[in-house]
Amino acid sequence: MENSRQARNLMFRNRLENVLQRLQNISHDEKSDEVSIPLYLHKNFLVRKVFIDRFKIAYNMTSFANKSVLDYGCGSGIFLESISSEIKKGFGVDLDIEIAKKVTTSEKISLTQIMNHDEINKFSEINVITSFDVLEHVAELDSLLTIFSKILSDDGEVIISGPTENAFYTFARKLARIGIQGNLRGSEEHVRNIFDIKNKMQEMGFLIQKDINLWSLFHVMSFKIKR
After folding, report:
1. d(CA 224, CA 149)
2. How far apart are CA 51 and CA 61, in angstroms?
3. What would the pLDDT profile of 114-159 be if each residue is shown by its tens digit?
4. pTM of structure
5. What domain range includes position 98?
6. How many CB atoms lie within 10 A of CB 34?
C-alpha cells in the first residue's frame, strides 16, 4: 500500500512538472496576469514552492481515480492536467480559459468560460470539486456553495485552498509581487479569508475532513457534504 502511494505521488509530481514546463513555454505577455498564475514560475524558489505545494497537498487528500472533477476557477488548468491520466472526466471553468486551452492537452478535460457561478448548475454527479484561491473572491458565497451541494454526488468532496490574510501573508504577498507585471492585485480583491470560508461551509452543511496549514500563509481543506 505504501509503495503504491509513493508511486502515485511520483507520477503526479512528474506530470505536474511537465505541465509547469508547458506554462513556462507560453509567451511572457500571456503570463503577466492573474489567470495565468505567474507565481508558479516565480524566480524565488520559496514562492514557487508555496503555490505548487497547495496542489501536492490537495492531491493527497483523496483519490481522483476514475472520478469526475470540476475545478472551479481553474486558472491555467495546471491541476486538472496534472491529474488527467487518472480521472474519468475533468471540467475546468473560469472567467478566462485562454491560457488553460494552451496548457491542457488531455481529451478528458473540457473547459468552459463562465461569467457567473450560476452557469455551473448544468453539471451533475461531480465526485470532486476543487477550487484553489478562488472562494475568497466570491461575494455571494452562500449561493455558490448551494450549487456545489446540488451538483456533487452523494459521496462527493470539495477541496479548497485560500489565504489566511494574516500579517505574515500580507508581508509575503508584497514580497512575491516584486518584479511581477500585470493584474496581481491579490488581497485587494479578497472579500474574506480561508477561516471565513471554512465557517461558512460548515454552516451550510459541509463536514470538514482535513485542514492543513501551509506555512501560515494558506490552508488546504477538504469537505464532504452532509445529506
Report:
1. 9
2. 16
3. 999 999 999 999 999 999 999 999 999 999 999 999 999 999 999 9
4. 0.94
5. 2-225
6. 18
